[in-house]
Amino acid sequence: MALEPNHDERMESLHDTKDSCSLEPKDSVKSDSSRMSFLEHLDELRSRLVWVIGGLFVAFVISLAFIERVFAFIMRPLQDVLPEGGKLIYTEPGEAFLLYIKIAFLMAIVLALPVLFTQIWLFVAPGLYSHEKRYAIPFVFFCTLFFVIGGLFSHFMVFPWAWRFFAGFSTDYMAFTPKIGPAFSLYTRMLLAFGVIFQLPTLVFFLAKMGLVTARFLLRNIKYAVLLIFIVAAILTPTPDVVTQALMAAPMFVLYLLSILIAWVFEKRPVD
C-alpha cells in the first residue's frame, strides 16, 4: 500500500509549484539577502565619497603641475579681444594665488570625471537588475564624453562671442581691463552649465530604457521644449545679445533632436 505524503512534504511540493508558476524571471527577483539596510547604504556612500575625494586630490596635484598652461588656455579667448599690450589685472594680494587654486580644482573635476561617474554608478548598481548593470561602461563613457564636448563648445564658441561683446563697450576714455577673478567665475559657471546641458542625450537614453520617456512624447512636446530652451539660454547667457543666446540655444535644440532619435531607438516597446 502506497504511503500518503506527510504535511511537510505536501507544503514543500506546493511551494515548489508556486515558484515554477511565477510570472517573474528568476534573475529579476531580488532576494531579501541582497537588500541593504540604511546603515549599509550610508557606509556604501562613505566608501564612494572616499574614492571621489581621492580621485579629486590626485587630479588636483596633477593640475598644479600644469597650472600655467591651463591658465593660458582658459584665458586665451579673453586675451584675444584685449587691445594690444592689454593685460588681465588683479587688485587683491591673494587674488592670483586663489585663482590658481580654483583653476586647479576645476581642472581636477574635469580629470576626475571618469572616477566620479564610476562611483555614482557603483552606488546605484546594487539596486539594479543584472541585465541593467551592463550599461555601466556606456554610462561612464558617454557622461564623460558629453561633458567634455559641452565644455569645449563653451570655450571655443560661446566665450569668444561673449568677450567680444563686453570689449565692444571700450571708448577713448574707458578701457576694457577685466579682473581675473570675475572673468574666471563667469568661465566656470558657463563651462559647468554647458557640461550639464550636454548630458541630455545620456539622460534620455536611460529614461527610454526604463520606459519613462518615449520618442512620441518628446516629439509631441517639442514646442514646449523650444520655449524652455530659450528661457534657459536667456538665464545662463552672460550677455543679453541675441547671437550669444542663439549660440547656447542652438546646441540645446540639437541635443533635444538627438534625444528624440535616441528614445526612438532604445525605448521599451510592448511585447506581443
Describe the 3D structure.
The two termini are 50 Å apart. Residues 17-33 have low confidence and may be disordered. Helix 6 packs across helix 7, helix 6 packs antiparallel against helix 11 and helix 8 (200-209) packs parallel to helix 11 (242-266). The chain contains eleven helices and no strands. The chain has 272 residues and is mainly alpha-helical. The protein has helices at 7-20, 38-65, 67-81, 95-111, 113-124, 136-167, 180-197, 200-209, 215-220, 222-236, 242-266. The radius of gyration is 27 Å and the shape is flat. 71% of the residues lie in helices and 0% in strands.
Task: Please render the helix and strand layout as text.
Layout: H1 7-20, H2 38-65, H3 67-81, H4 95-111, H5 113-124, H6 136-167, H7 180-197, H8 200-209, H9 215-220, H10 222-236, H11 242-266
Concise overview:
With 272 residues, this protein is an all-alpha fold. The protein has helices at 7-20, 38-65, 67-81, 95-111, 113-124, 136-167, 180-197, 200-209, 215-220, 222-236, 242-266.
